[in-house]
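User: Hello, can you help with two protein structures?

Assistant: Certainly.
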Amino acid sequence: MKTFGWSMVITVIALGIALAYGGPAGLAVAAILGVLEISLSFDNAVVNARILERMSPFWQRIFLTVGILIAVLGMRILFPLIIVSVTSGLNPVEAVQLALEKGPIDTPGTYAYILHDAHPQIAAFGGIFLLMIFLDFMFEEREIRWIGFLEKPLAKIGSINAASVIVGLAALVLASLAAGDKQTIVLIAGIAGMILYFLVNGLGDLFDVGDDDVEEENGEGELDAESIEKRAGRVGGGNRELGKVVGKAAFLLFLYLEVIDASFSFDGVIGAFAITSDPIIIALGLGLIGAIFVRSLTVFLVRQGTLDEFVYLDHGAHWAIGALSVILLVTITTEVSEVVTGLVGVLFILAAFITSIMRNRRIAAEAPTIPESVSA
């Protein structure tokens, strides 16, 4: 309740506003959108949690306050308006007016239609960005593997110089060739997504900022950047010794976290217009309900040490990211149900969770037992 309390309160308020604004139908659609966003974002929460656990409690609170404003106002409200404004040539005021007209998605010139028409470039941008996250994770050598028969050869491929760039560009070329008259804009959007990935990923070099920007969780000393990486990457249950970044390093991590969080939002924002063209209901369902719960789930995973206890969750989340990136690229030319998108992510996370439990039980069973006479 401590973690999800505010999420529940805000959900009740949002549903109340939806009921007053759109009646029972508005209430039902807002609830559906909230569930859709949560189901689509389980993998998002896991990835966010792995980053957030490196931050101090202060920056975790910033993620829940300033970060939620960025997620709700930025991605769920301003982002669609900017897309419509840019692609249609309307000024922001006219874009808002068009949004409030609530035209259907299949009627040319409506807000929903224009945003849906811009889906290929949005999908290319987000799909390539997420694909690079997946590839860089899978192309690294790791002590622990989940789907070994796939992850072992992927790690070998990763030994090739610039392997992720080669695979990412190949995927982008294939997607653009299938995009028909939108080949050029899809290619440009995908390259922009790749550039942004390397830009925000390159911020990692700036995280190595010295001892003043790192503090131990127990406050008894400081850790260097190498120690942080080792401890942040450490898996397994028990005592979690995790270095916390503060100051400039935490701010840069926060920016990186927000960019990743935004990338996960593309499919939900676009898909919402297949359910309703009302921007108010979308903001209430995706933003105030979905985004708030995803953030609370992220903080819950951090505070409970779930990622350290269930070691395959990282892998499951990244496989879900890979699946989502492929789905986004496929949707450039082919409609894919949001139900399918959501279920794929949930199934990967659920499978990773179950196999983590099985691994923990196997390790516990193999551990040597201490005779009672010795322990006494």
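That covers the first. Now for the second protein you mentioned:
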Amino acid sequence: MNRRQAVAGIAGLGLTGGTLWVAETGLPGMQSRGEEQLPIRLETLDARGSTAGEALVPTRDTVTVVDLFATWCAPCDDQLEVLNAIRPEYDDVSFISVTNERPSETLTRADIAEWWSRNDGAWTVGLDPGSELLSAFGAGGLPYIAITNENGTIEFGHSGLVGKETLRDQLDSLE
């Protein structure tokens, strides 16, 4: 490994750590977003089950499951499989999956839509490049699942893979 690759690797780790720190603590001198500032308006993608435009997260007057993911995150693939399995049981619940990845030359909106399709996503998928949702939900890692009640109050939040039964228990308690 040459010096340039080592410096680039260290810089990448620093950016990742800095992003997670900002998501957890907010920027110095700024109040953290927190639950009181939900809903947050996000860009949505043209992908299977989703249309390009905007969406408010959480969905107003509806129990909402928010799945925070990244295309590079292997457990996020597994979480999407779990969500696909239980979603048909909850017609009155809004599902939205959101990535904080920033579209660029190396990861385009089309790349995210292709990942979404490959993983059988079939509901709204959005972008949170400023990590506003990560901050509002206090997400410490990916995947992250948040469930809000009809009033937008966070009822459940979990970093890491969440199983079908746990999700069912949480959703059944809100219906």
